[in-house]
Amino acid sequence: RFLFRVETEPADLPPGTAYPVDGLALASRLSFFLWGSLPDEPLLAAAERGELATPAGLAAQVRRMLADPRAANLVTNFAAQWLHLRALAATTPDARRFIDFDDNLRQSMRRETELFLESVLREDRPVTDLLAADYTFLDERLARHYGIPHLLGSHFRRVSFAGDPARQRGGLLRHASILTVTSYATRTSPVIRGHWILANLAGSPPPPPPPDIPALDNQVVAATLPIRERLAQHRANPACASCHDVMDPVGFALEHFDAVGRWRAAEDHRPVDARGAFGGGPDFNGVAGLEQALLARPDLLTATLAEKLLTFALGRGLGPADAPAVRTIVRAAAADGYRFSSVIHAVTRSDPFRQRRTALPTEAGGP
Hints:
This protein is mainly alpha-helical. It folds into 3 domains: 15-67, no CATH class; 70-181, no CATH class; 188-296, no CATH class. The chain contains 17 helices and 8 strands. The strands form 4 sheets. A two-stranded antiparallel ribbon has the order 1-8. It has a two-stranded antiparallel ribbon with strand order 2-3. The protein starts with 17 loop residues before the first strand and ends in a 10-residue tail after the last strand. The model is unreliable at 218-222 and 363-367 (pLDDT under 50).
């Protein structure tokens, strides 16, 4: 079943003209963005009174909606899109290599990430906590997968690793859900992981590969060469090097995590080499070094989150015309300590969220 949302355009505006949506349309945008559902009576009443057209009235409704239990749908739906958690349902690690992987573990992986994001939202933590957090949420099944003892039962609870300089768990880059969807069935993929980080945390997705470039032949080289040497074959091709020189070093930093997110010190009896770098920048080592490199640019991390949230809220991809709105969202968040709620409030205040553009006439000969 489908639910269609219709926003009526004014009849007297020239094509391509930006105009503010009416109160009921804005209420609908807010409710589907924050709750994934229809507006409730208080929101509709505020829209009818014209309160959503004022900054104070709009902010009051957003605060109320974020405090409502239905805001958990924002976490579930947005995480599925932004972090590619939807792909986890179709991800099937090789049963011979990962004999303990099952659907219960798959569900626990996803739930860890959802509860973690919900905690950042509910506690109104800074965006940087998405990477810097020294805690996560575990049940017995996932704790056993991570090698964490003495945690029993199917209920999730918050587990802190504060003060542990060698901690293996915490923020998003240490979650098995993400580490699994960015791997192949039989092995890790620094390429996929590097691309995922660049696209979803650093706001700089590499272009797609040229259509005439074959994939790395896993059967030929996987059994004999370390992953760095396998990928060096791709970088030796000038058509591949421009992207792989950027993606691969970022993905290498996560090599201490195997294809289902378990920690490892060695692969095929060789010590793991988790040195990485961002596009010619200084080297870093492992997930902690990667996190620090990303956290050194909170504006970039926030801009990427703002782009993903705005895309989710609008139900469309962003274009050059949306760039000023993203910059405004980042400035507002920076002025408020990069708190997660400040990003959401700024998204709802942005012109793309509050406005529409009248349709342009179709080109001559077009449909």
